[in-house]
Amino acid sequence: MATIKDVAKLAGVSTTTVSHVINKTRFVAEQTQQTVWEAINTLHYSPSAVARSLKVNTTKTIGLLSTSVEAPYWAEIIEAIEKKCFQHGYTLLLANAHTDFDKQRAYLSMMAQKRVDGLMVMCAEYPESLLRILEEHSQMPMVVMDWGSSQASFTDTVEDNAFAGGHLAARYLLERGHRDIGCIPGQKERHTGEGRLAGFIKALQDAGITPRDEWIVQGDFESESGYNAMQKILSQKQRPTAVFCGGDVMAMGAICAANEQGLSVPHDISIIGYDNIRNSRYFSPALTTIHQPKVELGEKALEMLLDRIVNKRDTAQRLEIHPQLVERRSVIDGPYIDYRR
Ligand SMILES: Nc1nc2[nH]cnc2c(=O)[nH]1
């Protein structure tokens, strides 16, 4: 592989001049620049990022400590981050730790050793042990993307207003004349599980309805859990007329369970999801859902992190995104439509 010395020799200049041409760090005469680039192209020389990093003390690399890329929700956020990183000339280093603490610790240490310029964190669950090691690594500029309203002085955060989104979903069902409403939330340990459920419960209580425990069946954001939870809800003597699923993928499982029991969504039971994953428009029926601004979440988080890196900001910032209702075909009017308050 050609080295910078080979390029300098072929171009008849010093290695310092080659370096200045590549990095545009000092004026070099037009003709000399051209000779150097011709030598670079002839030798297929590729400048060493390692050597550059040692010189300028940045690696132009962003680390992402995440959960998985398997679920569409994560995939859409990570895609947005990766695109933005590319636009800004950064390489994204992806570390899926699957809520495994040993893996999270190992990856954090690798990111630190690789001298990433900044760290994005999307670990889904934040037990004390994880928070402690994140704080231990807070010499790296950091943004935590899914930690809700939690405030920490060592990192930037993004508030996704999960409570407001759950409230919005339940309010919509109430306004469409449903009062017997079930829920399949994601894990309580996750802000998107607990926050969305809390908003749902509050909306029912505000409408004078006591949520029925037997209609709130725990899911885990996977389609199988939505399927099993819906089977459990439908096996009861009295059934709800509508169900709020705390994630679209669980809604997909729930629709499948209803269909297999000979029920039609929305005519026999209405279903509303959350996330507005790309494919939810192609569910059968097209899913009414709460839009989580995933692209905005990824982009805003990265921009906040770059601000920390480039402008050396060291005070914590918090940005917000806001969920929105997307009406499609999986909810119809319930039996109380004429008695709405
Ligand atoms: N799969 C998955 N989807 C989500 N949507 C919102 N939160 C989550 C999560 O933790 N996992």
TrEMBL record:
Domain of life: Bacteria
CDD domains assigned to the protein according to its UniProt record, in alphabetical order: HTH_LacI, PBP1_PurR
Record-linked InterPro entries: HTH_LacI, LacI/GalR-like_sensor, Lambda_DNA-bd_dom_sf, Peripla_BP_I, PurR_sensor_dom
Occurrences of domain HTH lacI-type (ranges): 2-56
A Pfam family: LacI
Keywords, in A-Z order: DNA-binding, Repressor, Transcription, Transcription regulation
SMART domains on file: HTH_LACI
The keyword DNA-binding is annotated on this UniProt entry: yes
Name of this chain's protein: HTH-type transcriptional repressor PurR
Organism: Rosenbergiella australiborealis
Taxon lineage: Bacteria, Pseudomonadati, Pseudomonadota, Gammaproteobacteria, Enterobacterales
The encoding gene: purR
